[in-house]
Amino acid sequence: MKDDWNANYEAGDLPWDEPVPEPFLVEAVEAGALPRGRALEIGCGTGMNARYLARAGWEVTAVDLAPKAVEIARERGGGERYEQHDVLAGPLPGGPYDLVFDRGCFHCFDEDGLRETFAARVRDALRPGGVWLSLLGSTEGPPRNMGPPRRSAAEVVTAVEPALEVVSLRGTVWEGIPWKPAIWILTARRRE
Predict the structure, then answer these.
(1) Domain 2-189 grouped into CATH 3.40.50.300
(2) 51-104 pLDDT, tens per residue?
């Protein structure tokens, strides 16, 4: 999988890379819905969301599986810290964090147990009471052959709940994508 993602960055084939911060993240920040302090972004890509969080006052570490993504993010970055890291290979670096954000990483794993491992890694990176905000593809809406991988609410809760408390799982559509795929906005918390 590492080589596939890195090849996309090497070729500049980045349909998921946006020139502005993720609107759902901005909405949560502006609403004061996320704990302040230290933040980790998983799957940071070229670093747009990490830079946004840093400008908004978080101390940010951002990781991506693709070395080329990390290289680009470092070139564009400010005070954020970027590292190449495979979430499934070992603990996330630099914790504990008040906030973990991922825009479309958690839903990428199909094999049994991998989403559970991902959720456990997030739990271990969060301080007690820390929050994970994740955007992921949903099985809701009309059939489609493109866009984010589709996960049911049951799949999401089954993977997350043993490790973290699901605070909310809200269905919506991804307005920034022309065909507006259905997505989930997951908010989970590490138990005190």
Answers:
(1) no
(2) 999 999 999 999 999 999 999 999 998 889 999 999 999 999 999 999 999 998
Task: State how far the Cα of 64 lies from the Cα of 103, in Å rounded to an integer.
Answer: 12
Which amino acid type is present at position 183? I
Read off the pLDDT of residues 140-189 as tens digits, 9 standing for 90 and up: 888 777 778 899 999 999 999 999 999 999 999 987 777 788 999 999 99
Under 8 Å between Cβ of 69 and 14: no
Beta-carbon contacts of 97 under 8 Å, excluding residues fewer than 6 positions away, are 37, 38, 39, 40, 61, 125, 126, 127, 130
Contacts (Cβ under 8 Å, ≥6 apart) of 38: 58, 59, 60, 61, 94, 95, 96, 97, 98, 99
Give domain limits for the chain: 2-189
